[in-house]
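User: Could you check the structure of this?
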Amino acid sequence: MTRPLLTARLIPYLPLGLFAALGAVLAYVWKLPCRTGGWNNSIQTYANFCYTDIYPLYFDRKLVTENPYFADVAFEKQVEYPVVLGEVMQVIAWVARWLAPPVDSSQAALDGAAAAQAVYFYDITVVLLGLCLVVGVLLMAAVAGPSRRWDALWYALAPAVILAAYVNWDLVAGALSMGFLLAWSRGRQVAAGVLLGLAIATKFYPLMFVGALFLLTLRTWKWRPFLVSMAAAVAAWLVVNVPFMLLAWDGWRRFYVFSQERGIDWGSPWLFFERKGWPILGTMDPSLLGMLSLGLLCLGIAVLTMLAPQRPRLAQICFLALAAFMMTNKVWSPQFVLWLVPFAVLARPSWKPLALWQVAEVWYFFAIWLYLLYQDESSRHLGIGDDVYFTAVWGRVITILIMMAFVVRDILRPDKDVIRQAGIDDQGGGVFDRAPDRFSLA
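Assistant: Sure, the predicted structure tokens are below.
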């Protein structure tokens, strides 16, 4: 490809990259009230709506002096994330230690030197996450194709994205997930598999995309590309995980033990049933309840995929599977919105339900911190109680169900799908694009 041609192809993406950079900067500005001295006071953090896991975990997971997974700390103080995120944290901690004054292991976590290191750790992490947002937006635009490129603005500037961007490290998994989708759409199955494996080794939710690929493979009988990608995904996952499994077993398994043993937490609809004392829904083991409900929803998605009069688009099935995973989870943190935004937009780029969902997500973002203020007697007057908080929880559920209902309708009635109305079959489907049905229950 000649240089002028390459430049001509890249120029349309420049404005999107600038908008994504603007979103990243706005997200950083939102956290400034805490970055300048508020993170050491939880009440001030919640009252300013600027909480992040990045700063406190630098101390609480001993990154100030120890290495993830190999740390000589109690099991519950090990890093509770898959290995790619743990190593991202490790590298940034090394840089922060090098830039800031040294900290002796006997020093208090909140003294000047340690706090300076933690701010460096936060700032460098934010730079990386901001780059991940820009990359994720550009990759999403490429997946959407020339006719729908500007749909990626939702990922760049959606209010909930800006508010939740730096609560945790989720944008790293977001960039890898979009990279997987773009590689698959271009027929690069090995690269798609490697990126999917790395995404699963970063956050667990991209595992849901395996089911989406399997269902569409079953319908089109395109088994070779699917198996090649799955082999590459498994290989990539093993390459980054096996060294820690062998050398730091206890640290490595912390994520999996934590995920299994963790009880019902903030944001989950199961918390409502538990607090209200509902029979079965509020008393069963949350892990079992979550797996059963997710299994039922996934079975429904599978039947829908096989019964649809026309093969669904890959983004539609990824969205439905991911939404099902989020709604049935034991915990639904504010930053989980980052997982769903690009897939919701790719599945159905209609602004009205997306805007309604953003309103619900923004309300939840403020509601969770007000609810946490209510848990402390000294700040109760600043917060909100159970009933108001649960309006935010159910607002998210209801608005996502509305979006899912529209996607299901589009699958059952392809003439209603705004993507296919433009004469496009499956821009991000790769080998599925315009593939004939080989197995269908329609």
